[in-house]
Amino acid sequence: MIIQLLTLHTSKLQELKEFYCKLLKFPLIEELPSSFKIQIGESALQFIDGNNEQEPFYHFAFNIPANQFLEAKAWIKRKVPLLTEEGDDEIHFILSDAHSCYFEDPAGNIVELIARHKINHSSNGEFSANSIINISEIGLVVEDATEVGQKLEEVAIRARGDEKITNTSLSFMHTAKNGVYLLLVGEGRTWLFSNKTSTIFPLHIKLLNGIELAVDPLKQFSIVK
User: Fold this and answer.
1) Three-state SS for 147?
2) Which of 11, 53, 98, 131 has the fewest CB atoms within 10 Å, counting from its CB?
3) 45-73 pLDDT, tens per residue?
4) Nearest alpha carbon to residue 111 among 175, 20, 41
């Protein structure tokens, strides 16, 4: 499973463009009056003007080379403060053998850099935005995670380890062990390294296999095959 294009809403379009394109130097691949799109390795990330009074925020993660966590952490720390939890500015996920650090962008999105040591490839080059492999995770927040989980299973997107999906758990949904997941969750769960809780906002996910997933402004989830 590869996220080919992730489209998110924002109320701070210009601020995000400055942040991702000028500060972090992600390649800008498309710009329109109400949106812009940047390259995230083999993925693309698009922000569109939500045109409402809400201030949408999301949690998403970027896969980085397996051997470059410290380099990536130093790179982002020079540009933006890292988020902390109980005094720590990084976390080691023992079961999946991965290291992560987190930061917020100007729209309040909780962004994670994750080095999956057994899955991601290694790199000997100097770390930069161009070193990022792809979009690794996106929080898929829905009203009924159990029901949406069943719909995802119908298109072969299943919970990691066949874990039971509930509305209070965080379910890692995938099709293959390549370090790319949809984080299926109901509302109200606190995101790691943040005091924000999972909240439903519109999004659109286009997978490389042609499947498209969406949450619309009315909080309705849909799949286009």
Assistant:
1) helix
2) 53
3) 999 998 766 899 999 999 999 999 999 99
4) 20
